[in-house]
């Protein structure tokens, strides 16, 4: 009896461990014959798949996910065990990617999407751009688009992409995309990407979009590039909401609507250190360190009190009646606190999911901090849906008109039209100045 039990236990442990290990293995799609009505989608840098969820809502089917992060891979498999899954994009040829997607006969791909790692272009850090190892992953992603030639492609990234210089050597054949003397000009990376995609046969538009304008209860700005191989013109994403209901649109969704019915007892969250809770207990919803007395401000912030900048994120309780600020990958970092409006804690994992519009039942795997990171890095579901709706309209040759005078961004020259005009104007000026300096030497 004992022997039989031990053998059974050993078999159970073996099967369990084998299952866990297999999650980490690359896997080919088990969906060989998907519904022909489904639009074929290949997803790269997939993370927790917020973008994919939004696209699924309007008829896309993800045949392949590409993700190098262990916990994100576990999340992907937990929610879609039949999906094709690969790791580091740099390790796969075009043929291998299509094979893992179950598209061995070179069937046409409707859409490729991806948000390459953003740290290389983020306003924080060294801003090494494409010289960063993660930036080179961006170039590999473009190469995949060029080789597979999907009907449509979408690239998502941080605002820093619009101001990044081009920091790696240009090959001679690449100088048609960016003149070498323009590499150090702000925006050179975006201009290079723009020209390279156009050379690959794509019309495109891009803008700095605020997710609140698309129904997300969060003010989050990201660059989104939409490329089409089958249209002569690509309009901007069509907003569904505006801050105060301008242009006949719905008003922005607020935090209260997203967190309705939730409390800290039914989900997991990280804790604030006790020394910081002392100050949080003095603050109400929508307040931050500035609402403390001056003496307490200095005590709470320490040396940071004397630094420049707005310091809005210090000791910040969110407001019920506004969209959430951008969700960061850790809700309790001193300069970017995301404190609950009333409870003495940061936002919880489930609240993060609600704000990013993940279904409550969507499983997020990994450690507590890793769960926050996956959700914080995701594309909000409503933004994914807006992207999908635009692409479907383009695929059906339906006319999509931009809303005149709609302010997509609070910054200047963030739309493809204004960005290109501004960059080329600055480029001409730079070249003229260099020519004058050369003449003055003679």
Automatic annotation (TrEMBL):
Gene3D superfamilies reported for this sequence: DNA Methylase, subunit A, domain 2, Vaccinia Virus protein VP39
Segments traversing the membrane: none
One biological process term in Gene Ontology: negative regulation of gene expression via chromosomal CpG island methylation
Active site, per annotation: 118
Signal peptide: none
Listed EC numbers: 2.1.1.37
Catalyzed reactions: a 2'-deoxycytidine in DNA + S-adenosyl-L-methionine = a 5-methyl-2'-deoxycytidine in DNA + S-adenosyl-L-homocysteine + H(+)
Gene Ontology molecular functions: DNA (cytosine-5-)-methyltransferase activity; DNA binding
Pfam families per UniProt: DNA_methylase (PF00145)
Presence of the UniProt keyword Iron-sulfur in the record: no
Keyword Flavoprotein: no
Keywords: Methyltransferase, Restriction system, S-adenosyl-L-methionine, Transferase
Cited PROSITE patterns: C5_MTASE_1, C5_MTASE_2, SAM_MT_C5
Family per similarity comment: Belongs to the class I-like SAM-binding methyltransferase superfamily. C5-methyltransferase family.
Protein name (record): Cytosine-specific methyltransferase
Organism: Aurantibacter aestuarii
């Amino acid at each position: 009896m004992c022997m039989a039990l031990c053998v059974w236990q050993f078999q159970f442990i073996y099967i369990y461990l084998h299952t866990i290990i297999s999650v980490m293995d690359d896997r080919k799609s088990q969906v060989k014959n998907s519904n022909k009505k489904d639009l074929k989608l290949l997803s790269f840098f997939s993370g927790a798949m917020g973008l994919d969820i939004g696209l699924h809502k309007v008829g896309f089917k993800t045949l392949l996910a590409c993700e190098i992060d262990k916990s994100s891979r576990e999340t992907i498999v937990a929610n879609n065990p039949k999906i094709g899954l690969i790791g580091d994009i740099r390790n796969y040829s075009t043929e291998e990617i299509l094979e893992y997607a179950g598209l061995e006969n070179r069937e046409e791909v409707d859409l490729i999407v991806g948000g390459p790692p953003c740290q290389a272009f983020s306003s924080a850090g060294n801003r090494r751009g494409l010289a960063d190892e993660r930036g080179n992953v961006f170039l590999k992603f473009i190469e995949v688009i060029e080789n597979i030639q999907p009907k449509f492609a979408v690239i998502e990234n941080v605002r820093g992409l619009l101001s990044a210089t081009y920091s790696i050597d240009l090959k001679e054949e690449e100088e048609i995309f960016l003149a070498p003397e323009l590499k150090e000009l702000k925006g050179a990376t975006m201009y290079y990407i723009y020209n390279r995609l156009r050379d690959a046969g794509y019309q495109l538009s891009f803008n700095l979009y605020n997710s609140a304008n698309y129904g997300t209860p969060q003010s989050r700005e990201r660059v989104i590039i939409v490329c089409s191989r089958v249209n002569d013109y690509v309009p901007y994403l069509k907003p569904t909401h505006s801050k105060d209901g301008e242009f006949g649109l719905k008003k922005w969704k607020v935090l209260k609507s997203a967190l309705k019915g939730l409390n800290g007892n039914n989900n997991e969250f990280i804790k604030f250190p006790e020394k910081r809770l002392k100050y949080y207990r003095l603050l109400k919803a929508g307040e931050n360190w500035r609402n403390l007395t001056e003496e307490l401000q200095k005590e709470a912030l320490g040396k940071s009190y004397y630094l420049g900048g707005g310091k809005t994120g210090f000791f910040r309780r969110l407001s019920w009646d506004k969209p959430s600020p951008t969700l960061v990958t850790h809700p309790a970092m001193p300069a970017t606190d995301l404190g609950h409006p009333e409870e003495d804690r940061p936002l919880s994992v489930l609240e993060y999911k609600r704000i990013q519009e993940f279904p409550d039942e969507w499983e997020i795997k990994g450690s507590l901090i890793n769960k926050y990171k996956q959700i914080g890095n995701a594309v909000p579901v409503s933004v994914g849906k807006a992207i999908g709706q635009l692409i479907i309209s383009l695929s059906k040759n339906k006319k999509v008109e931009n809303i005149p005078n709609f302010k997509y961004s609070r910054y200047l020259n963030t739309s493809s039209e204004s960005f290109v005009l501004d960059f080329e104007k600055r480029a001409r000026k730079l070249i003229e100045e260099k020519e004058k300096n050369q003449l003055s030497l003679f």
